Amino acid sequence: MTIYLPIAELSVNIFIILGMGAAVGFLSGMFGVGGGFLITPLLIFYNVPPAIAVATGANQVVASSISGAITHFRRGTIDLKLGTVLLVGGLFGATLGIWIFAALRALGQLDLVISLLYVVLLSTVGTLMLWESVNALRRARRNETVTLKRTGQHNWVHRLPFKMRFKKSKIYLSIVPVAALGFGVGVLTSIMGVGGGFIMVPAMIYLLRIPASVVVGTSLFQIIFVSTYSTVIQAVTNHSVDIVLAFILMLSGVVAAQYGVRVGQRLRAEQLRALLALMILAVGARLAIDLFLAPADLYSIARTGAFQ
């Protein structure tokens, strides 16, 4: 069954789009990530223009994140105070990111920059996560005691000023690195259409030493509002949100996210990180290959700036 996407200006198979939304929604609930780092490349692979894929992908991230966050809220695994600090930084970052997005689009360099950012970011994050998770699995097989710093132990991050007590997470931490993390994720949300959970979750665990029990839910809480803000501003300023495509992705993503949460709770943390790392690396490799392969059409006609 084929439908026409008015903003993307192409016809697509509705069942393929439904499958994409369901797969990304499932992974969103399973890993505690928004899923934008998967849905945006998948849409690009399906010949959706990158500008549309980024803005519409952020819209799908909202739906999947809401579905997963509701489950975590019911279980009391969201630190609302910590999430609010992340959110404030994220909104400022998203505003800057939207400005950069519009500038790159006007210069005609948006597609290339998006692909390069994905390749660099996904390859780096995926490699680091895979290395850490493989080492953790090896230690578990040998029944070795893992000597990790416990929550509350100090590193350079904990010596920064403007500290605040987060009772839910049971930590006393400066808001500077928390807001900075939110700011960086906000920029990525606007430029790349990602929720940023694949960066935020590891950073909260390994850098900020936030207990893993509240990391996933708090990450989804921040992703909801930053992605919503980014989507609305993209629609108003750049006219790059395809509502038909967004609705189909949201429909399947919301349902699948609930099942993802249930499956994720049955796997060990290091297993989840290893699986997520492999997926991140696979997407990065696929984008890298496309950058070096000669396109099927050597010439194209495209408009810069906002859609008329």
TrEMBL record:
A single Gene Ontology CC term: plasma membrane
TM stretches of this protein: 12-45, 85-106, 112-131, 171-200, 206-229, 241-261, 273-293
Signal peptide (residue range): none
Membrane topology label: Multi-pass membrane protein
Subcellular location: Cell membrane; Membrane
The entry's keywords: Cell membrane, Membrane, Transmembrane, Transmembrane helix
Family according to the record: Belongs to the 4-toluene sulfonate uptake permease (TSUP) (TC 2.A.102) family.
Protein name: Probable membrane transporter protein
Organism: Rhizobium setariae
